[in-house]
Design a protein that fits this description.
Layout lengths: L9 E8 L2 H11 L9 H7 L9 H16 L3 E8 L10 E11 L5 E9 L5 E11 L7
Length: 140
Amino acid sequence: MTLAPTVGMAIPQREHHCDEVQQMLYNASLWNGHRIHFDMAYATEVEGYAGLVVAGPLMGDWLHQVVDEWLGESGIIIGIEYSNRIAAFVGETVTAGGTVTAYDDASGELRLEVFIKNDRDEVLTPGVITAQLNLECLGR
């Protein structure tokens, strides 16, 4: 990020595609043994999902990542809240992005509404991220 943010500014979006290997490694690192993430028959036949469900915390990590990449060395994330509303499935491509909804020029604190959307433009995971800009990086 090189310019001071403005309310309404959209940050660059980032696509994510979770395959079975990433899903297995991510859930193993969390010690998450819920079968909807690795057992296709269980996920579809017992739980009624359309496929293997992408781990919810991974969606939060993707929200964090899209803002962190946009901030670069200009700031840090100081808060994140999100809610997984619709499942994403292994093999789908989803898009993370967001919009600046508040910016305090004096303190450098900003707030973004963030999202993960599927290819049908449904918001799967809405959230809010708060960040603190390094005002020296903005030339102050």
